């Protein structure tokens, strides 16, 4: 199934009008104006065009397009770096606290920069024939990766090199898998599905004592199926996993089949499964930052106004069997970024009729938490991910 709406784009080549299906993962509208570029186009010229909002259809050597994309990335990075240094300097010389750019603003500024970077890089396009075949010189065979990412397509299409690179990268992960050392197994993520590359929280799920009765568990927002797999391997008799994202369901189903797990069922659902018994255990690792997602994959990370988190908490009690437990896996990065307070979170537990039985903590060790040049280093390096064990209020 194609993740994009059916949209078409037109452009001229040697005064001939061409048309192709428009594919855009970040749901960008088809470009109104396209200019043709090739190996003779300099990186500076391409950067200027892209910054001015012009889409460029690549006609040159396939491999050279990668180099152009790298050159564009370097130009964007140095422009971002200049802005960051300017903000840091401004903060240093600020005469009063009011003049200092505060953490939530820095976070929003960083996201705006990421969105701008994505818009600029997405302006370098390529055309593919039906079945995702490129006619460019020295073209790689991209058809299998595109089919896996975007679905079967029997007509020509136009997409950004950036989306193509995403599809190629995902094909690599899908083939190689993400090794989860503490489980001694690999998980195979699909394109557009949250890949558990930072998986410190797995240990929390292994350390938490299972409720005495653990016949039925739900994994809400299963992604690759990782948490459902842990529960099944720990001996939960029946696990029901849900996700809104159809790619996640296909991915989880493949991971369950690889491991021969027949005790796991999948349902496409907004939060809770329907027509199932009450659960002894409900686990959820929701998107952890309250902000607007800008692409389908970002729905795993960003959650407007913490709507999924609050919806999950609000519905938990009515799906829980007597003596049942909720295991909420949640990073406190949003608290360090001042996007959500601890009191707010505790208030949502109380509003949902839940109380904290215990909490297990872990500290992420991923690269970004160690990068001292990141303006959000103070927040990122303080991040703690917790497993909150919640039970119905007595
Ligand atoms: C942070 S990822 C966690 C994935 C997986 N459980 C793990 O721990 O690796 C959050 C997942 O929640 C899913 N999701 C977001 N909103 C949802 C909703 N309203 N109902 C069901 N799933 C949702 C996303 O598609 C994503 O797969």
Automatic annotation (TrEMBL):
Entries under SUPFAM superfamilies matching the protein:
S-adenosyl-L-methionine-dependent methyltransferases
Which Pfam families does the entry mention?
Answer: MTS
ATP-binding recorded as keyword: no
Q: Which GO terms describe its molecular function?
A: nucleic acid binding; protein-glutamine N-methyltransferase activity
Q: What is this protein called?
A: Class I SAM-dependent methyltransferase
Q: Answer yes or no on keyword Transport.
A: no
Question: PANTHER family recorded for this chain?
Answer: HEMK METHYLTRANSFERASE, MTRF1L RELEASE FACTOR GLUTAMINE METHYLTRANSFERASE
The record's Gene Ontology biological-process terms are: methylation
Ranges of residues in domain Methyltransferase small: 187-331
Q: Enumerate the UniProt keywords alphabetically.
A: Methyltransferase, S-adenosyl-L-methionine, Transferase
Q: Which InterPro entries match?
A: DNA_methylase_N6_adenine_CS, N5-glutamine_MTase, SAM-dependent_MTases_sf, Small_mtfrase_dom
